[in-house]
Amino acid sequence: MRAAVVPGVDVAWELREVTTPSPGPGEVLVRVRACGVCVNDVLATRGLLPFPAIDPAVTGHEPVGEVVEVGAGVTSRQPGDRVGVTWVRAGCGRCDYCVQGLPVTGQTAMCCPAPTTTGFTAPGGHAEYLVAAAESTVLLPDGLDWELAAPVMCAGYTAWSALRAAQPRPHDRVAVIGIGGLGHLAVQYAKASGHETIAVTSSVDKVDSARRLGADHVVTDAEQLRAVGGADVVILTAPSHRAAAACLPGLRVQGRMVLAGIDGAEPFTIPSAMTYPFFALGQQIIGATHNGPHLLKEALDLVAAGRVTPWVETFPAHRVAEAVDRVAKGEVRFRAVVEY
Ligand SMILES: NC(=O)c1ccc[n+]([C@@H]2O[C@H](COP(=O)([O-])OP(=O)(O)OC[C@H]3O[C@@H](n4cnc5c(N)ncnc54)[C@H](OP(=O)(O)O)[C@@H]3O)[C@@H](O)[C@H]2O)c1
Ligand SMILES: [Zn+2]
Ligand SMILES: [Zn+2]
């Protein structure tokens, strides 16, 4: 099969011929039709997150496609099923975390010493075929296009989990910092849920797009966020703790700031001017990741219903390196999806 192999740290991805996997007991073989490029794939292959611990290194955790073969004992999936696979597929099943019996979520990857993660510890989705445990696959809603389903597997799942983690009340105003892969979906999910929505972008050229995504207000800094009335929920989808902390003055009474963007470089610091407001206003800082399969189902259903639509740039497989390059440069509007 053809797969996008990452030959080494910070080396351009190459489409290569590699061995097609076959499904073992309990597994399915998926003919991948599309796989999104998450910024975390780019960071991992550039050595800024752990490099994929697989040989050949094939990353990608937004694959969707058809089941073409099932392994022994599989009853829940059959050839022809349209499925997706997410970042975290399973825990080890026996550590202190796993024995609690919690659903598989992004937490599993943090707390279990030996999780199965797509494109990190197990071969990823930037390939024509992928093998996964049948129970770790998700059935896609009927009729949902491959290129719209793929971004939901990580970007949409995270954005929706972040919104739901804030437990927004019906009248809450929601602000989203960073209009990229996650952020453009967070804006739409917030709007689709009936919230007055504010996009906070550092890119002036995204103002029009942010409005078309449904934002009621588009601001470029914290002062403007405050000037438009602030927000009850602020979701960080940019890789910048500094950008999040700068928006604290725009967080209202009992406000919740959800950190979904990952900043591995700088700590999150409450600015000294915000120390007293933060505790006096009863504000919270919450982390969010892939928070559970029921949330992925909700995120997919909203897209299938046409209430949220990923904006994608699609690339044929032979242009995968170009897709990665555009993601790295922040040029994609708003998710790169590679078709296999
Ligand atoms: N929590 C999770 O489970 C999870 C899952 C997937 C990804 N992530 C993280 O979520 C973040 C977004 O991922 P993505 O795939 O959506 O990336 P992306 O497409 O590159 O979008 C990130 C957006 O953040 C803004 N931005 C970038 N650099 C910035 C900076 N230095 N300061 C302020 N704003 C900046 C930009 O939006 P504007 O131009 O509008 O400012 C950019 O479009 C990353 O940190 C990623 O690691 C977390
Ligand atoms: Zn991701
Ligand atoms: Zn475990």
Automatic annotation (TrEMBL):
It catalyses: a primary alcohol + NAD(+) = an aldehyde + NADH + H(+); a secondary alcohol + NAD(+) = a ketone + NADH + H(+). It comes from Micromonospora zingiberis. GO terms for cellular component: cytoplasm. The keyword Cell wall biogenesis/degradation does not apply. One of its GO terms (molecular function) is zinc ion binding. InterPro entries: ADH-like_C (IPR013149), ADH-like_N (IPR013154), ADH_Zn_CS (IPR002328), ER (IPR020843), GroES-like_sf (IPR011032), NAD(P)-bd_dom_sf (IPR036291). Residues 8-338 form the Enoyl reductase (ER) domain. Belongs to the zinc-containing alcohol dehydrogenase family. Keywords: Metal-binding, Oxidoreductase, Zinc. Its cofactor is Zn(2+). The keyword Oxidoreductase applies. Its EC number is 1.1.1.1. PROSITE patterns: ADH_ZINC. This is alcohol dehydrogenase.
